[in-house]
Amino acid sequence: MARRFIGMLFLVLAVVASAAIVRAVHDTGLFELDGNAIATTTHDWNQVFADVVNGTNTSAAKDKAWTSDNLLNNGASLNATIFTGGGSKDPNDVSEWAWKDGAGGLPDKDNLLHAFAARYSVAPSASCPSGGAATCDVIFFGSDRFDNSGDAQQGFWFFQNKVSTGFDANGDGVVDTACPQVIGGGTGFCDPLTGAAATHRNGDLLVISDFSNGGGTSTISVYVWNTAVSGNLQLLATSAAANCASAVADDQFCGIVNPGPGLTASPWQFLDKSGNSNFLNGEFYEGGINLSALGLSGECFATVASETRSSTSTTAQLKDFVISSFGKCTSGLSTTPSVSTVSIGAGIVTGLTDSATLNITGASTWTGTLKFFLCGPDDLTAQATCLTGGTQIGATRTVSNLDGQPFVSSAATVTKVGTYCWRGEFASGTTGIPDASDASATECFTVTPVTPAVPTEASPPIVLGGQISDNVNLSGTASRPGTPVVNGPQGAAAGGTLTFRLYGPSDLTCVAAPVFTSAAIAVSGDGLYSSGGFTPSQVGTYHWIVSYTGDAPNTNGSTGVCGAANESVLVRDITSATTAQNWLPNDITTITSAGGSALNGSVAFTLYAGLACGGTVLYTEPAITLTNAASPAIRSTSNTTVKVTATADVSWQMVFTSSDSNVGSTSKCEVTSLQINNNP
Questions:
Q1: With the C-alpha atoms ordered 363, 368, 372, 373, is the resulting torsion angle positive or negative?
Q2: Same domain for 244 and 177?
Q3: Are both 541 and 598 inside the same structural domain?
């Protein structure tokens, strides 16, 4: 089984350094390059070791790694994970390297037991100048080995890619399966997450260090992987006087081994060939490099590997290695829509935006492009969120670390209800920084339909025999979806139909069958619509109810309620009468003798048309006889047959004819003008 990976990953902010030389790696005050592993005035490897094991950060490093080659040297094979095969050389791509486990043939002086690294990025200062860059970026590295009997020839690779001896085959988060074999039978190196063969990336950093004469002479060379040069390794700098103990104040890189005589304390479990639990002279090595000095501070290193070799030549066969996760560049995109729920309104929603925040770790200087896409509602049927597709909103924009955040998309419009989801896509323009996108469920929002109002106004009360009707002032409809739905025009006015129903006259709750149902009336958006007329056949109170079918998906249907205001109409009936007056003309007379003589004779009444008691006779009362009638004698007519029914002039003629020669006769003419009005 391959080694354990204990390196703790931390978020990094690095910068791309200027071309100017930035020096002073050993006296930055960030880390003690003094040939021992115990902190005295600032940070040292005992803190890095404790941080990795305990998950702390007492060393204040942004990235750190501390890894054992053979499980803390607890009795496992000293030949754990060593290089094998002729392709295991620095100029060859990692995909050509091979390793084996538990096999012999490894010289004791080349046997690594532990390797470690720490990276710092701090504000520029006199002790850690940046040459104009935003930060001063420095990496410290080191290792210890099994035996000190021979010159130390070591290299340190800082890979931008993830490089491992194994991978997480079952996806449980634990690297547990060796990488696939390569040509020659050895095991290859691979990505710890996918198992795919590991490869170099241009910009990978290699530091080769050669210590001789017990560590007094130090030669360090710095290379970067560059496929454009012969042999793939581009030399950036080299020095034969790179011992940190004697380095000048402006050094770009240096290294140092623990001095002798005597032992140097080890802060971790250690056992060398001689049985010592602390370091003999030259068994502990540490070094540092100012990335800003070499224009490499913008690089993100995901993996660090310490290696030993048969000589300092880059073409030398590699011997042993210790590899560990180190740091990484990451990019995270977090986006937030401007709304979570919004009504479709009149049929178009405008001003919809997405807000994106980019979280770049591992580089403080970066560039890239940002796109926003809006999906929905029809193109979300095959996926829950906007994983692919959609409509790009606004132009592709160039973004960098100099821009203020968050980034807000151009405004979008939609014309259809449903679920919509945003997607942000960041395409990195900086080596080592991955692309990023966000199409999570929090990127979705809902556009809801409208329910229009159907206020109605029934006709006034009528008299039975007339017509009643109802009007609705339909309002609040939404237009139909436009084409396209996203960033397209507003659609046509809402359609659907209106139906009027009339209940009554005694149906107060509108549960019986309606007495009238209108035809379906086509709707074209908001407006005034009429039921048409209906002639009731009974008196009473009638109730109108109007129903609107709606026009899916933007406009819901709507129905009124029984007895709503302005929805009732009274139908009543009235009576009429005609009159025809009639007048029965009669007369009465009083006949008086002056001396009180008895009256004998006859009384005659005659009714004439006109006012002159002459002409047309309308009625003659039968003769009335008086015999010894006492004076005064009162006699009247008894007309019941002659009626006056219209305006007329009439006159009565009364004649008393005395039969007594001593008593005189008398007469009287009475006139009447009669007006009859039957409809005053």
A1: negative
A2: yes
A3: no
Burial (CB < 10 A; 0-12, 13-18, 19+), residue 261, is: exposed
Give the C-alpha separation, 505 to 570, whole Å: 9
Look up the domain containing 629 and give its range: 588-674
Residues 6+ apart with CB under 8 A from 21: 131, 252, 293
Q: H/E element holding 53?
A: helix 45-54
The tally of CA atoms less than 13 A away on the side-chain side of residue 120 is 26
- Does the N-terminal peptide bond of residue 489 adopt cis geometry, omega within 30 degrees of 0? no
The pLDDT of 432-460, averaged and rounded, is: 92
**What confidence tens digit (pLDDT) does each residue in 162-178 have?**
899 999 888 787 888 88
CA-closest candidate to residue 381, choices 341, 415, 420: 420
Identify the pLDDT of residue 604. Answer: 94
Residues 484 and 394 in one domain: no
Q: Which two tokens stand for residue 184?
A: 């020659």
Residue with tokens 């739905």: 485
Q: Do 260 and 294 lie in a common domain?
A: yes
- In whole angstroms, how large is the CA radius of gyration of the chain? 58
pLDDT tens profile 538-594: 999 999 999 999 999 999 999 999 999 999 999 999 888 888 888 899 999 999 999
- Residue pair 311/150 in contact (Cβ under 8 Å)? The answer is no
CATH number at residue 424: 2.60.40.3880
Q: Using alpha carbons, list the distances in angstroms from residue 533 to 34, 471, 519, 564.
A: 105, 11, 11, 20
Contact criterion met (CB below 8 Å) for 352 and 374: yes
- Alpha carbon distance 583, 648 (integer Å): 10
Name the pLDDT band for 134 (thresholds 50, 70, 90): low
Nearby residues of 404 by Cβ (< 8 Å), 6 or more positions away: none
Q: In this structure, what token pair is assigned to residue 278?
A: 């602390």
Q: What is the pLDDT of residues 601-624, one digit of tens each?
A: 999 999 999 999 998 999 999 999
Q: Return the pLDDT at 215.
A: 64
Cβ burial 125-161 (10 Å sphere, 16+ → b, else e): eeebbbbebbbbbbbbbbbbbbbbeebbbbbbbbbbb
Helix, strand, coil proportions of the chain in percent (round to 5)? 5, 40, 55
319 phi and psi, to 5 degrees?
-105, -75
Q: What is the pLDDT of residues 78-87, one digit of tens each?
A: 778 899 888 8
Asked if residues 476 and 452 have their Cβ atoms less than 8 Å apart, the reply is: yes
- What's the domain count of the chain? 4
Length of the chain counted residue by residue: 680
pTM exceeds 0.70: no
In a domain, 597, yes or no: yes
Instruction: Mark whether 337 and 204 lie in a shared domain.
Output: no
Residue 199 has, within 13 A of its CA and on its CB side, a CA count of 6
Token pair belonging to 206: 């290699």
Burial class of residue 275 (count of CB atoms within 10 Å of its CB; 0-12, 13-18, 19+): exposed
For the record, the structure tokens of 679 come out as 């409809």
CA distance 597 to 631: 7
